[in-house]
Write a structure and sequence with these properties.
The chain has 4 helices and 11 strands. Strand 9 and strand 10 form a beta hairpin. It is an alpha+beta fold. It has a single domain, classed as Sandwich (Jelly Rolls), CATH 2.60.120. Helix content is 21%, strand content 32%. InterPro entries: IPNS-like_FE2OG_OXY, IPNS-like_sf, Iron_ascorbate_oxido_reductase, Oxoglu/Fe-dep_dioxygenase_dom. Pfam families: 2OG-FeII_Oxy.
């Protein structure tokens, strides 16, 4: 993807910093029907990362949105799932889109997944023709403030450059139709 986007080595190193990635283990206890729970372990969201590498167990529950339709990501033994995040969307000028996803809780089995999240360096300035320049640390702080004040993540829309005319708006709509995939399986 970095080659496809024409990133030089310095950009690759700063946008995909080894020192800022982290691993998170998620456990979703089973939730029997009728327990009063909405059966969502994680509501609809995008990851703030450049990309997320996910190892899920065989219980499943991950769903991704593609063109407004929810698709279940079937667990395949020995594979990893790669979801693109908000920073990849910004870096790519919206050529690649952040994966909109959610997690459904199983009624019978606990679900475990392990995610490795890759982030740009805190002080790295993300430059894109579709977004005003921003540091990842500014983006993260804005997301945290939005969640605290509004109850949800606004995300990249806060940094989007607003079009000045209908011509720019039409060009942006055409570019969105050519965006690349959101989620992939890779076998190890």
């Amino acid at each position: 993807m970095a080659e496809d986007l024409g990133l030089d080595q310095e950009q690759k190193d700063s946008y995909l910093s080894e020192s800022t990635g982290f691993v998170r283990v998620y456990r979703y206890p089973c939730c029997p029907t009728g327990s009063g729970n909405n059966n969502w372990g994680m509501d609809v969201h995008t990851d703030s990362s450049v990309l997320t590498i996910l190892c899920q167990d065989l219980v499943g529950g991950l769903e991704v949105s593609r063109e407004g339709e929810w698709i279940r990501v079937r667990p395949i033994p020995g594979t990893l799932i790669v979801n693109l995040g908000d920073m990849m969307q910004a870096i790519s000028n919206d050529e690649y889109k952040s994966a909109i996803h959610r997690v459904r809780i199983s009624e019978r089995h606990d679900r475990i997944s392990i995610g490795y999240f890759v982030f740009p360096g805190e002080g790295v300035v993300i430059r894109s023709s579709n977004y005003q320049p921003f540091k990842y640390s500014e983006f993260r702080a804005q997301v945290q403030m939005d969640v605290k004040m509004l109850g949800f993540k606004v995300g990249l829309e806060r940094f989007k450059i607003k079009p000045n005319s209908d011509d720019n708006n039409n060009n942006n709509n055409n570019n969105n139709n050519n965006s690349k995939g959101i989620s992939s399986h890779f076998q190890g």
